[in-house]
User: Fold these one by one.
Assistant:
Number 1:
Amino acid sequence: MKVFATIEEVRSWGKSAGFVPTMGALHEGHASLIRRSAAENDQTIVSIFVNPTQFGPTEDLAKYPRTLEADLKLCEAAGADAVFTPDKRMIYPDGFCTWVTVEGLGDKLCGASRPGHFKGVTTVVAKLFNIVQPARAYFGQKDAQQALILGRMVRDLDMPIEMVTCPIIREPDGLAMSSRNRYLNEDERKRAVGLSKALGEVEKLFKSGTRKVSILRAKLATTLDDYVDKLDYAEILDAEDLSETAEIKRPALAAAAAFVGSTRLIDNVILSPTSG
Ligand code: AMP
């Protein structure tokens, strides 16, 4: 497996690869994306870059876990052919002043509580796409809003990239895997399961025939309340365009963000009337 630190090395390596952008501190969720890409492409490249522009001023940029050595091992074991580890200056040279913004979709859910977050995400992913020039790119449903926004960016800007969204990988008790889970102490780790528990309760209610969003949303919020320290949001929105809906007639995204201790966790589930 090759490790590239510069844009030039990536450019001369080749095109049409499968691409998995990450911020490192890799876990089985990331590995599932890499394995999927390795199975579907001749070559797979992973980027590891803790993108400063997607962190707010009071967020965890400085303490975000950096575990490069273990990450490289995971990438190789999962079937990556190359890893791109640019530094901050390379991605954001002096005088950098160009941004990519997807309007509307980025104002809700995580965008409402993390202003500027998605502008940072779309900009860095657009840049990485230009550097890597992949045929396909792999993202996790764990960050459902991010996948939706990036899909819209690729469509609106005619980027010649096939976007693949992969299922959420969970711990045995249901907690969605996340690089931020390692911030949790023992008690917090136990309560962190509340997100997937609450979403599971909502899914159960939905499968038993409940379609009213007010009832489902209340179930989500009250169940979460038993576990988490502070609710950020508990929402049920149209899964395609994140519009509000009173009754589920098309696939809906049930999504929650909450603080357990000082760690902000997110999770979601799709409620699909056809399979409900
Ligand atoms: P991150 O390093 O957190 O920016 O995540 C990089 C990619 O991995 C994103 O597309 C995430 O959605 C995806 N990802 C993170 N956690 C999971 C998970 N538990 N299951 C599936 N994909 C994930």
Number 2:
Amino acid sequence: LGVSGLGTDAWTGKDVLSILDFSRPDLELLFETTDRFVGLPDRVPKTLADRIAATAFFEPSTRTRLSFTTAALKLGAKVIDLSPDVSSVLKGESLPDTIRMLESYADMIIMRHPSEGAALLASEVSGVPIINGGDGSQHHPSQAMLDLYTIRSLKGGVDGLRYAIVGDLRYSRTAASFLYGLTRYRPGSVYLVSPDGLRLRNEVRETIGALGLKAEQLDSLDPILDKVDVIYMNRIQKERFPDPNEYEKVKGSYRITRSTLSNAKDAIVLHPLPRLNELAYDVDGLPNAAYMKQARFGVPVRMALLHLVMGGGER
Ligand code: NCD
């Protein structure tokens, strides 16, 4: 499954902490590897046959944990799971000590944690690759990778398209990671659509600005609905609001429905899921709705990611 002409050094044995650690050719290698897995669903090579993957999720997860687990199993790996609520985490064991144990059992650790920088901290004590499945509001690299793969598949590429990133841009790690991913491409335009209290954090704005990504801030999607190719919705991250009153002020402040989208032409609607009321169920039947396809791409993209991190690109 090696892809000729592209290097694999950026992947083999590396941590996956942020999509910013990867160049455009690195991402292209991931997507070409993903294409091969999508094209060979019944003949998946068991390239992780002698490997053990550990999952350690200190925050709720459906898609990320189970699609990584499915990806590892499909490639022939065995998977062990640390359930924080029935492990020594409950007795007060520190994250570094927990990681030191897992690295002695497994060849890779896929983790999610509510604290920013938790995956980076884990990578400093772990001798095996750490795959960040989300650290607080900061990074969610594999989500951004599958978002970009979805756009590449449905729109034929990422360059030149017009993007609206909508909702809780303040706390959504998915929005930040997606913007970081876009810095590797040349989008036509990028609109950041959010109510006042949920604007992009300065650190994210400064990072993308320094990397040359221009983005325009708006309060409403309506004026640009017929001018965008991709609408990336995000859930309000209720669990990350330090003050519940702040959450009360913004909850329900944005929502798209079938009628909102009547001017949207062939824009695709993405959402990392889970959705709450920001994305109405009546959108599901529209040809624009792409979020279920997006979620399903989670397995092949994560197969390609694990395959490359475990050295598969070199075989
Ligand atoms: C997202 C997350 O955990 O950041 N979910 C996911 O991984 N698909 C988005 C969210 O929880 O809103």
